[in-house]
């Protein structure tokens, strides 16, 4: 309950009462000022505070509206947390924050949301992502970045396009991302596996595979591997980058858990690659509906690989038109 003045007990609005229903428009600032006998600046401050609390939202040139009430959480029969789902507890998800952001985004970017984009993704989003990636020691030019509908689409594209080394075999850690394993099996792509344990991988075995097999790229999760949860050491990342350069192999780094990193000095493998052989993948928004938010950012240094991605993304973009 907010007050117009510190000396008054009259609230600017009591949204807990039945006076207003979900979605109702609030009176104008002038009306509220007259009703509660306080200045317009006080009313504006109170409304801004209500908006911060996600009780109301503003619409440009229209006014303020009551936010729909959050539904009451269902009572659970147990306090057990299920980690197998790899998803947060629905009862603690910030629905109001999410709703507030969507309302503001629709209002701010309404002229761009319902237009066809570009093959590389929303142009205004790419430089924002570039600044975000820089915080994770991934310094990329916006021109080298591609936004896809999730990491799986990015991996599908990388499997499809030719690479400068002219090879076709994909090397995957065992275990690894199960959907990607199913993808290469379904499409009968040439694939090799290398065992990864809690202690890491055998770098001698990795070198042997790089040397004797025609490896197109090595798909790896150096940080917080799924499902093992382990991370490569600094020396391991350096050695993998060196071997990739030595044997003309590309690295596809899936850094999907980078935002959970607590060690500010833990850099991705991409940061150790001085040769431009690492394609960096980072995904966001795994739990909202895929067609709303799910995206993946691919950072590519190699010109020939970038050209291939550009061509395929253009085809996919044309198919949506």
Write the layout of secondary structure elements.
Layout: H1 29-36, H2 40-52, E1 56-59, E2 63-66, H3 95-108, H4 110-113, H5 125-134, E3 145-148, H6 151-160, E4 169-174, H7 178-186, E5 191-197, E6 200-201, H8 203-212, E7 215-220, H9 234-246, E8 250-254, E9 278-284, E10 295-299, H10 303-320
Parallel strand pairs: 4-5, 4-7, 7-8, 8-9
Antiparallel strand pairs: 1-2, 3-10, 5-6, 9-10
The top-level CATH class of the largest domain is: Alpha Beta
Instruction: Label the overall shape.
Output: elongated
Major beta sheet, strand line-up: 3-10-9-8-7-4-5-6
CATH topology of the largest domain: Aspartate Aminotransferase, domain 2
Strand content: 15-25%
What do we call the CATH homologous superfamily of the largest domain?
A: Type I PLP-dependent aspartate aminotransferase-like (Major domain)
Mean pLDDT: 80
Please provide the count of β strands.
Answer: 10
Compact summary:
It contains ten helices and ten strands.
Describe this structure in words.
The protein is an alpha/beta fold. The chain has two domains: 1-68, Orthogonal Bundle (Arc Repressor Mutant, subunit A); 116-320, 3-Layer(aba) Sandwich (Aspartate Aminotransferase, domain 2), CATH 3.40.640.10. It is 34% helix and 16% strand. It has ten helices and ten strands. It has helices at residues 29-36, 40-52, 95-108, 110-113, 125-134, 151-160, 178-186, 203-212, 234-246, 303-320, and strands at 56-59, 63-66, 145-148, 169-174, 191-197, 200-201, 215-220, 250-254, 278-284, 295-299. An eight-stranded mixed sheet has the order 3-10-9-8-7-4-5-6, with helices on both faces. The protein has a two-stranded antiparallel sheet with strand order 1-2. It is elongated. The two termini are 50 Å apart. The model is unreliable at 6-10, 289-295 and 315-321 (pLDDT under 50).
């Amino acid at each position: 309950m907010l007050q117009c003045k510190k000396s008054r007990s009259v609230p600017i609005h009591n949204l807990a009462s039945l006076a207003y229903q979900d979605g109702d428009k609030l009176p104008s600032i002038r009306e509220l000022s007259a009703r509660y006998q306080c200045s317009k600046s006080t009313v504006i401050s109170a409304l801004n505070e209500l908006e911060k609390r996600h009780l109301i939202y503003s619409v440009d040139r229209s006014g303020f509206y009551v936010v729909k009430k959050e539904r009451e959480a269902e009572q659970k029969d147990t306090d057990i947390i299920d980690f197998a789902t790899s998803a947060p507890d629905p009862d603690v998800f910030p629905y109001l924050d999410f709703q507030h952001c969507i309302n503001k985004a629709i209002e701010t970017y309404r002229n761009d949301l319902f237009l066809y984009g570009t093959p590389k993704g929303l142009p205004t989003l790419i430089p924002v992502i570039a600044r975000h990636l820089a915080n994770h020691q991934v310094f990329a030019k916006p021109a080298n970045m591609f936004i896809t509908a999730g990491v799986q689409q990015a991996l599908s594209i990388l499997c499809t396009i030719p690479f400068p080394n002219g090879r076709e075999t994909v090397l995957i850690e065992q275990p690894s991302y199960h959907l990607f394993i199913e993808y290469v099996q379904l499409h009968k792509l040439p694939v090799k596996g290398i065992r990864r344990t809690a202690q890491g991988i055998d770098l001698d075995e990795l070198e042997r595979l790089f040397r004797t097999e025609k490896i197109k790229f090595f798909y790896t999760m150096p940080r917080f591997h799924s499902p093992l949860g382990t991370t490569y050491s600094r020396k391991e990342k350096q050695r993998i980058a060196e071997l990739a350069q030595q044997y003309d192999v590309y690295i596809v780094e899936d850094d999907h858990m980078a935002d959970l990193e607590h060690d500010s000095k833990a850099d991705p493998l991409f940061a150790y690659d001085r040769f431009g052989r690492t394609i960096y993948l980072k995904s966001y928004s795994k739990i909202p509906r895929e067609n709303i938010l799910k995206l993946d950012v691919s950072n590519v240094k190699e010109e020939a690989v970038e050209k291939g991605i550009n061509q395929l993304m253009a085809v996919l973009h044309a198919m949506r038109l």
